[in-house]
């Protein structure tokens, strides 16, 4: 007993206790800290491979260090990619928007030029430069797990936040200055999530803080339901419904009748008699 209490008063005792406290706290932090959205999991080999691909395919516009290149007039050949995150690269390269083929008002969707592996290497490289939104986890992409109620919620969300640009059935629509919101007919669950997460071009950004990953999954489920919906006869007409069908019947039907009447007027039996 005596021995212990003398030792406790050892001048270094306080220091040792502090040190132990720090080690325990550090350990706890490492165990429970939220995973940073950097390329921590990506091996350094991926990052290096991505950097090589980047230098060949992207650096001409985005700069050797991905910090962007400004034109003499103050515009951009390619914006800085520092902090855009793996999600932005996965979206842009995965939907074929990047590498940009020619400058225009908007990078169009096309067949991807890079394999899935190369795309993830490019993403790992850009993510290694600065933290940014990570590629979404598969549990939030599993839209088939959403029940009817959740799909309905997703639909409500879609109508409030997305229809203004993408139309109520996701058929897309025009925007000012030659830009457009694309059709969502063929977009994968991952790319829908990433579009919300990174807000490409004119599209607003719906971060995970604003719309939780669960809500995003419901929106995806709704868009997927739209994609699978068959057209119930008639012309799809961009989802405008019976109005479009009616209009076509009217214009083509009445048009044909008028044309026929004119023809009769010119070729009828009486016309021939008068000649
Ligand atoms: C010909 C020039 C050009 C090339 C080559 C190019 N980009 Fe881009 N990139 C642009 C321009 C311009 C934009 C901005 C316009 C836009 O977003 O549509 C852009 C946007 C992006 C964005 C979106 C940034 C953001 O803020 O969300 C990413 C990510 C990206 N590029 C990655 C790449 C990668 C990776 C490559 C190589 C595989 C590449 N780019 C090749 C010109 C280029
Ligand atoms: C202000 C108009 C606007 C709103 C609102 C908007 N978007 Fe977009 N969206 C765009 C534009 C513009 C693009 C094309 C960006 C590009 O090509 O760089 C786009 C692209 C997309 C894409 C990629 C499609 C593809 O196949 O490549 C998806 C998916 C998407 N949006 C989903 C959504 C969802 C879901 C919402 C609602 C939560 C939404 N958008 C709200 C304008 C909008």
Commentary on this structure:
- With 275 residues, the chain is mainly alpha-helical.
- Among the domains are: 44-129, Cytochrome c-like domain (Cytochrome Bc1 Complex, Chain D, domain 2, Orthogonal Bundle); 138-228, Orthogonal Bundle (Cytochrome Bc1 Complex, Chain D, domain 2), CATH 1.10.760.
- 53% of the residues lie in helices and 3% in strands.
- It has helices at residues 2-8, 13-32, 44-57, 59-62, 85-94, 116-129, 148-161, 163-166, 189-198, 213-228, 242-267, 269-274; strands spanning 69-70, 76-78, 173-174, 180-181.
- α3 crosses α6.
- The model has no long low-confidence stretch (mean pLDDT 84).
- One heme C binds next to α4, β2 and α5.
Characteristics:
mainly alpha, Cytochrome Bc1 Complex, Chain D, domain 2, two-stranded antiparallel sheet, 3% strand, elongated, binds heme C
Query: How is the CATH topology of the domain at 138-228 named?
Result: Cytochrome Bc1 Complex, Chain D, domain 2
CATH architecture of the domain at 138-228: Orthogonal Bundle
Task: Give the N-to-C terminal Cα separation.
Answer: 137 Å
- CATH classification, class level of the domain at 138-228: Mainly Alpha
What's the arrangement of strands in the largest beta sheet? 1-2
């Amino acid at each position: 007993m005596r021995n212990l209490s003398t030792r406790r008063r050892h001048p270094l005792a306080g220091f040792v206790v502090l040190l132990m406290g720090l080690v325990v706290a550090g350990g706890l932090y490492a165990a429970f800290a939220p995973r940073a959205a950097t390329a921590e999991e990506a091996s350094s080999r991926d990052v290096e491979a991505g950097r090589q691909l980047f230098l060949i395919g992207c650096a001409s516009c985005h700069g050797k260090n991905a910090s962007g290149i400004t034109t003499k007039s103050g515009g951009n050949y390619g914006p800085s990619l520092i902090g855009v995150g793996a999600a932005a690269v996965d979206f842009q390269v995965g939907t074929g928007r990047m590498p940009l083929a020619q400058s225009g008002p908007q990078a169009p969707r096309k067949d991807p030029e890079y394999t899935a592996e190369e795309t993830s290497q490019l993403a790992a490289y850009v993510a290694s430069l600065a933290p940014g939104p990570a590629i979404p986890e598969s549990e939030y992409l599993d839209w088939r797990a959403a029940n009817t109620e959740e799909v309905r919620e997703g639909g409500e969300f879609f109508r409030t936040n997305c229809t203004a640009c993408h139309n109520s059935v996701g058929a897309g629509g025009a925007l000012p200055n030659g830009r457009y919101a694309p059709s969502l007919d063929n977009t994968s669950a991952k790319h829908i999530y990433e579009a919300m997460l990174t807000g490409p071009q004119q599209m607003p950004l719906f971060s995970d803080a604003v719309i939780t990953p669960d809500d995003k999954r419901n929106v995806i489920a709704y868009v997927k339901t739209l994609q699978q919906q068959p057209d119930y006869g008639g012309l799809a007409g961009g989802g405008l419904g019976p109005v479009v069908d009616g209009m076509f019947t009217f214009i083509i039907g009445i048009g044909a009748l008028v044309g026929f009447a004119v023809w009769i007027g010119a070729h009828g039996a009486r016309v021939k008699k008068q000649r």
